Amino acid sequence: NPVLTTVKYFKDEYLSHIEKKKCVAGVCKDLIEYYIKIEKCVGCNLCAKNCPVGAIEGEIKKVHKIDKNKCIKCGICFNICKFDAIERN
User: Does residue 29 sit in helix, strand or coil?
Assistant: First the structure.
């Protein structure tokens, strides 16, 4: 009964997970992707310094890039960026 109730009330979220491989709530780590918005990144290097696995590369005052193969999706870069240059989807 609890499962049927969640399917009834959260059908769109289930379909988003299954069909689009997206988590609307942003809580399913495997379905989250982080990327840097080119137009907002000022190259301050704060995200790269704080990335625990060194997944962010770039020179100071130049746009940085996230290596999706190294990224562990911890969200530190997203939380620490002062320029809202890192987006999660």
Answer: helix
Q: How far apart are CA 43 and CA 25, in angstroms?
A: 29
In whole numbers, what is the pLDDT of the chain averaged over residues? 94
Q: Is 75 left (phi over 0), alpha (psi -120 to 50) or beta?
A: left
Q: Which residues contact residue 83 at a Cβ distance below 8 angstroms, ignoring those fewer than 6 apart?
A: 40, 41, 42, 44
With 90 as the cut, is the pLDDT of residue 24 above it?
no
Contact in structure between 53 and 14 (CB atoms under 8 Å) = no
Question: In this structure, is the dihedral angle defined by the CA atoms of residues 19, 36, 57 and 81, taken in order, positive or negative?
Answer: negative
